[in-house]
């Protein structure tokens, strides 16, 4: 019997599954034997994420073997190698989420890779990983996985592979407070500082890595690094503990994010609100029928989105990215096109509202103190809109 659902991957027939398992076990003979990468710990089959991890191991190639040999004196070099490989796979996977952003220790790893490898190489790794995952999902043989790994290896290169493994090893099991000293102890740290400055970041970002909060990617090829002082970091951590206050409706409003400027975001009964500095949860309306209508319509419209709604210009832009091998940026352009389409459809449904091209998307009716902003429901987008309109009181209509 085989799993009915394999996360959109090609479902292997029993004979193909057995052959792939046999080839994987031969691969492991010189790397500790048995299930050397821990792919069968969640079951006896190679699922889609297992295939991606195996393809990544094949991409690392000789560098992985060097690492295993270097760990010969460890109590369990195989277990440590497995941990390194899975952490690398998990890190790359963060860039494939609907909104490409890394936070916490993963954000520090992004900054470290930009410092040691350069921003172009890091973007290449994102695009290469997206392509590897797509190929691994449809691969049915070990040779096809090796081919997927070989494509990523061309992007990765030996030096980048070594830097990746060293950085991942340094960060494994660390808290955010511990990653700074760990990275500063790595080879060529001073050179990495200089290289990071050449990428457009101040050199002190590497020195004070503990204060890196998040790194987000844009389709234009830029990486935005959010760095806050100790107070801002403390505020971000407190928001995760969900400080609670009461709104005018009597329903609890949970603080989910506090910006450096004192503005913050709260949730109440599934609604998300942005409160500028000086505005409290007591200022939230007891009910918001218009906002509820917009929210319901936004989700319904977004569920109808498909590639058939792309404009010719958008299709050409996405195709150019794909032809250049920039799969990740192509995905970002598609998400941006989806957002524009959803907004255009909502304008058709609510023609009487005061729609704006700048500032908030919808200005509230006369006498209403708050407004409405449409956005995709991802944490990085919530944070971005809160920073962009720090002084505006608005409800976030997300989809």
From TrEMBL:
Transmembrane segments: 79-98, 104-125
Disordered as annotated region, ranges: 244-280
Basic and acidic residues: bias regions: 265-274
Extent of Low complexity compositional bias: 244-253
Keywords: Membrane, Transmembrane, Transmembrane helix
Protein name: Lipoprotein
Source organism of the structure: Archangium minus
């Amino acid at each position: 019997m085989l799993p009915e659902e394999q996360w959109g991957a090609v479902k292997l027939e029993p004979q193909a599954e057995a052959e792939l398992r046999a080839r994987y076990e031969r691969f492991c003979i010189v790397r500790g034997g048995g299930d050397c990468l821990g792919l069968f710990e969640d079951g006896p089959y190679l699922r889609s994420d297992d295939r991606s991890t195996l393809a990544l191991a094949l991409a690392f190639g000789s560098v992985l073997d060097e690492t295993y040999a270097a760990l010969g004196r460890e109590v369990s070099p195989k277990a440590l190698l497995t941990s390194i490989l899975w952490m690398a796979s998990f890190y790359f996977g963060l860039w494939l989420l609907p909104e490409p952003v890394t936070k916490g220790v993963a954000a520090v790893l992004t900054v470290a890779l930009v410092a040691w490898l350069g921003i172009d190489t890091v973007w290449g790794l994102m695009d290469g990983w997206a392509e590897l995952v797509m190929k691994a999902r449809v691969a049915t043989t070990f040779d096809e996985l090796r081919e997927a790994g070989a494509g990523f290896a061309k992007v990765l290169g030996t030096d980048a592979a070594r830097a990746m493994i060293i950085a991942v090893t340094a960060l494994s099991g660390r808290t955010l407070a511990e990653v700074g000293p760990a990275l500063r102890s790595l080879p060529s740290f001073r050179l990495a500082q200089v290289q990071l400055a050449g990428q457009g970041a101040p050199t002190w970002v590497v020195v004070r890595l503990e204060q890196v909060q998040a790194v987000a990617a844009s389709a234009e090829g830029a990486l935005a690094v959010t760095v806050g002082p100790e107070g801002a970091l403390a505020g971000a951590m407190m928001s995760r503990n969900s400080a609670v206050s009461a709104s005018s409706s009597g329903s609890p409003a949970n603080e989910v994010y506090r910006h450096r400027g004192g503005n913050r975001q709260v949730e109440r009964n599934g609604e998300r609100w942005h409160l500028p500095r000086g505005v409290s949860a007591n200022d939230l309306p007891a009910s918001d029928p218009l906002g509820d209508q917009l929210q319901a319509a936004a989700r319904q419209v977004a569920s109808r989105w498909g590639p058939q709604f792309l404009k010719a210009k958008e299709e050409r832009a996405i195709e150019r990215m794909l032809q250049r091998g920039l799969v990740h940026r192509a995905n970002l352009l598609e998400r941006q096109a989806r957002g524009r389409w959803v907004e255009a459809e909502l304008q058709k449904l609510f023609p009487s509202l005061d729609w704006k091209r700048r500032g908030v998307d919808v200005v509230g009716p006369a006498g209403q103190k708050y407004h409405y902003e449409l956005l995709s429901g991802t944490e990085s987008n919530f944070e971005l809109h809160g920073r962009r309109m720090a002084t505006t009181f608005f409800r976030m209509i997300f989809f």
